[in-house]
Design a protein that fits this description.
about 15% helix, alpha+beta, about 280 residues
Length: about 280
């Protein structure tokens, strides 16, 4: 049996409203009993679809920021990804969510409040990034699941995905969707509210999750202070034990670009408000 995978990708980088880099990649992967062979073949229909979608994305250039557009066309359709970086923070978004996500990025302010041993309230669906690392990546690696609260479910569908025609398909996450079912929830008067996550990592050998928090607020009753960026590093079992409450429906977190073995793929991320108490 022979499987064919053809794709075209257009990638543009804009700085302060000016185009500084533009790339086009296209090719065909042929998989049969002899293995996978890749060729730099051009499918004009896919390239034309990329170019048309990229022209539409030009309306989303952010004049005072770094804007990257990535369009991919394949038999599965056309995907459009926008990455906007402002100062030292970024969001991954799409045209339909652009205004909301850029407003969230602009509202995230620098601060100097230092981290303290307080409960974390994961806002704007950001808990999905925490569970992406603690649940999703271990699942990709075939590691045994960890016990979560009975009122919390994390749906992580896996399928064969590849970043380009040159890459070997791997079993990868497509989405991380977290839901709560009549969970306990008491909002602490003193807490740290997570707003934006800069990056995350999972070490399958030590089972340690590391998250770089880009924007957070220190809440002390009526007083709210912006916090300086900080890092969380915890074993995934400690993270599961630290989940003490949740509220509301799953919220969409601005897209997550997940990197594994050099292949970067966008993973949808959804989670309700989540409360954790890490020691």
């Amino acid at each position: 049996m022979t499987n064919l995978y053809a794709a075209a990708t257009r990638d543009e980088l804009w700085l302060h409203g000016r185009l500084v880099e533009r790339r086009l990649a296209h090719g065909l992967a042929i998989e049969d009993e002899h293995g996978i062979r890749a060729a730099d073949a051009r499918d004009d229909a896919l390239v034309d679809a990329c170019d048309a979608a990229m022209d539409e994305l030009h309306a989303y250039v952010v004049p005072d920021a770094r804007t990257r557009f990535v369009v991919e066309a394949s038999a599965d359709g056309v995907t459009r990804t926008i990455v906007v970086t402002l100062a030292n923070r970024s969001v991954v978004t799409t045209p339909e969510h652009f205004e909301h996500d850029i407003a969230l990025l602009r509202d995230a302010m620098d601060g100097d409040a230092a981290p303290r041993s307080l409960p974390f309230l994961w806002k704007h669906g950001s808990a999905a990034v925490l569970l992406h690392e603690a649940i999703g990546h271990p699942l990709e690696h075939g590691q045994p699941p960890i016990e979560l609260p009975s009122w919390l479910t994390v749906d992580v569908p896996l399928r064969q995905r590849r970043a380009s025609f040159k890459d070997v398909p791997l079993e990868r996450m497509t989405n991380v969707v977290t839901r709560q079912h009549e969970a306990p929830f008491t909002l602490p008067e003193e807490r740290i509210e997570i707003v934006l996550v800069d990056s995350g990592a999972y070490d399958p050998l030590t089972e340690v999750v590391t998250l770089r928090i880009a924007a957070a607020n220190l809440v002390e009753r009526a007083r709210v202070q912006s916090m300086a960026p900080f890092t969380i590093s915890e074993a995934r079992r400690n993270i599961a034990r630290a989940i003490v409450g949740a509220a509301g429906e799953p919220l969409r977190y601005p897209g997550v670009i997940c990197s594994r073995e050099g292949q970067e793929l966008v993973v949808g991320s959804y989670a309700p408000l989540l409360l954790t108490e890490l020691a």
